[in-house]
Write a structure and sequence with these properties.
This protein is of the alpha/beta class and about 220 residues long. It is built from eight helices and ten strands.
């Protein structure tokens, strides 16, 4: 097995789907939650569902401690800053992968960006420059992640202020069988996170013949 990756908020739909995908790709997963008992219960269920044995449950602090280097934040935006503030000291020496989108609490077809410009930038401001924050996996639906019968149907845009952490995160997400692209520094998250409510709008629209669509980067025909 590879080094352990933590998922904070791993008991939510997106966190569970990501845990399953990573575990089936051979990554050891530390599933974090405010409730360690619930995390342990869900981890056991995911192991059964995915036919794996490399997902374990912890409270959030325990999941961070178990992570070799990478910690994925998959909590609702309402819990984003509080979760990071509580774990700031424990995150020293780690890379935080922020997949949170600041959707409007009143309308998921809209974003309400924080003063910093994006959730990724808010995380970097809160944690300080010594803990690299990389934004990724913003535009993948929970349904897509949990549907193990199909490959992930989108590309992944990765952004953050430090190049080496971006490269490490790109290598991790490519284990999911997707193409990742280096989208530049953390400010790019303002655009990337804002794509998600557009996809939500399209996916629930009766005017289009599909749902759970994702974003693809197409090269020009040659």
């Amino acid at each position: 097995m590879s080094e352990t990756v933590a998922i904070l908020g791993g008991t939510g739909p997106q966190g569970q789907g990501l845990a399953l995908r990573l575990a089936r790709a051979g990554v050891t997963v530390a599933l974090g939650s405010r409730d360690a008992a619930r995390a342990t219960e869900i981890a056991s269920s995911l192991n059964t569902t995915g036919g794996v044995d490399n997902i374990s449950g912890y409270d959030n602090a325990g999941a961070v401690a178990a992570a070799a280097e990478m910690v994925i934040l998959a909590v609702p935006f309402s819990a984003h800053n509080a979760t990071l503030a509580a774990l700031k000291e424990a995150l020293a020496g780690k890379i935080l992968i922020d997949i949170v989108v600041p959707l409007s609490p009143n309308d998921p077809k809209l974003v309400e960006m924080p003063p910093e410009g994006s959730a990724t930038e808010a995380a970097q401001a809160l944690l300080g420059p010594d803990i690299p924050v990389v934004g990724a996996l913003h535009n993948v639906s929970a349904h897509t992640l949990n549907d193990l019968s199909s490959p992930i149907n989108c590309d992944i845009l990765v952004c953050g202020n430090k190049l080496e952490p971006r490269k490490k995160v790109m290598a991790l997400v490519e284990k999911l069988g997707v193409q990742s692209y280096n989208a530049g520094n953390a400010q790019a998250a303002r655009c990337i996170e804002a794509i998600t409510p557009i996809l939500i709008r399209l996916n629930i629209s009766k005017a289009v013949p599909f749902s759970h669509a994702g974003l693809k980067i197409w090269a020009p025909d040659t």
